[in-house]
Amino acid sequence: MRTALIQALCELADQDPRVWLLTADLGWSVVEPFQRSFPERFVNVGVAEQNLHGIATGLAREGQVPFVYSIATFASMRGYEQFRNGPVLHQLPVRVVGIGGGFAYGHAGASHHALEDLALARTQPGVAVLAPADGPQARSAILATHNLPGPAYLRIDKAQLPDLPELAGRFAWYQPELLQPGRVLLFLATGSITHEVLQARQILEARGICAAVAVMAHIAYQADDALIALLKEFPFVITVEEGSAAGGLGSLVAETIAQYELNCRLHITGVREPFLPHTGSAEYLRRQHGLDPESLAALARMALATKRTRVRRKVA
Amino acid sequence: MARKPWPERPDRCQFCAAVRHGIIRQSLDSHVGHIGSALSVVEMISVLWNDILRSPGTNDPDRDRFILAKGHAALALYMTMHFRGLLDEDKLRTFCRDGSQLGVHPEFGLAGVEISTGSLGQGLSVACGITLALRRRNSPARVFVLMSDAECNEGQVWEAAMFAAHHRLDNLIALVDVNGMQAMGPTKEVLDLAPLARRFEAFGWHEQEVDGHDEAALRHALTTGIANREGPAIILAHTVAAKGVHFMERQVEWHYRNIDETLAEQALQEIGVGV
């Protein structure tokens, strides 16, 4: 997905002389095509993420469009207040690119596991929070930010993942993209964990359960008609995100169901446990937190087998 | 205290006294503190806005930029803009009222404020980005930043200091208000900054030290800093916290404390303009 990112950035920079790429000394063997093509608009600020956000703010205040690049933990948290007081407060077109959200950096340990990035970014009104599912969608999402007047946060996976043919690179603001149709259940995912969700769907299909799968790459502050319409179609939705179960996609869907009084049962999957005292591969860590295909399929079966419990409020 | 008219537009030699008068009067009217921090930067802001900045407070793309990184001294900036004719009295009088563009810290909606500040340590980084953008389009504009000494406790200041020197941002000129006092005590006791001059020098900045209340010395230092083409320039301006009001000077309480009518009257008598 990083290759798609850099190609899209080069494309944007070629069309628009306002586009810059700043890195806090990360992106070796990734960012070089941009650096070679646009050396005067590429800056490695060193290992200094607070300054990174400050410089981006200054550039954007002068009419430039800086993309800032780092590992998702550092990009989203080390300079969070600077991002909030700069691009968010002044509504400037700074694009923060967080590489490898969730457990993508597996063995690197908890310091590199960005579980909060989407939730943190989403709490800031006016920030476009984007977690594309594959390279072509990442490209579409990045190009879609071109004329966005305010800031954006993009979670970009570091792995070279297979493209999702069902998605075909589609991206639109606020828009869930349906990948697989289904009846009893909707899996609504964001980011590259969509690959695991599609595998979970296959497991369920083998057992005669037809689950729909959709991708929500834009985790907005509030839902638009498209998400509301999709939720109306399903009696049960499971949200899947590789990160905190609070504050991100699951919260957006829960808030939407509550606000619009939708008749849709919801199960939010994500990380709910404190950091583990041990590490492992991304696959291992996803399993530990129930985010692997088998666990997701098992959860769906169990939830479908459980009757919905309605608590009726007594009205005096 | 009966409300008296503001001082008339002061001539240059009485400008700083008028600004000090305004700081005391408006602090009293608005029941807002940070008086000491505003009083110590009066000469610096006065010299910048009267003598150095080109096209301040305008939308000229090549105007010099000014960032008050120590945003809590905003009242000194508002008063200076007012007496320079860039901020009318009606708007000035809204200071800290509901819906006002004039807060305790500068907000970017006000003409003349490039960016909102208030969280210490962030202004110099933003100034680096602005300078970089101006350089890219060959603008002659210079970027001036005014920081507090305790602001240099923030690691981000040193991230920016390294960056500015590495990229030889010679249109970036920073001033530090070295008043030796921070929110909870003298800087020497809280977190000693010494040797601040040598530290900036070691980071690759052209460094000067001046008396921060001597306008001629400030003008000379700023002119020298601007002329330096080797990289960024820093001016350590040694000041007295709450300068100009004897009973407040060097007293830590006047970082936050609000003033009452009796003390305000005493302060205005000492300042001696418009009373």
Notable features of this structure?
heterodimer, A: 316 residues, alpha/beta, six-stranded parallel sheet, 12 helices, 38% helix, 19% strand, B: 275 residues, Rossmann fold, two-stranded antiparallel ribbon
> What order do the strands of the largest sheet of chain B run in, or round the barrel if closed?
1-2-3-7-6
In CATH terms, what is the fold-level topology of chain B?
Rossmann fold
Q: Determine the CATH superfamily of chain B.
A: Thiamin diphosphate (ThDP)-binding fold, Pyr/PP domains
Total DSSP E strands of chain A: 11
Decide which structural class fits the backbone of chain A.
Answer: alpha/beta
Overall morphology of chain B: globular
The greatest interface here is: A-B, 27 and 28 residues
Shape of chain A: globular
Q: Mean pLDDT of chain A, rounded to whole units?
A: 95
Sequence stretches where pLDDT stays below 50 over 5 or more residues of chain B? none
Element string of chain A (H = helix, E = strand): HEHEHEHHEHEHEEEHEHEHEHH
Strand content of chain A: 15-25%
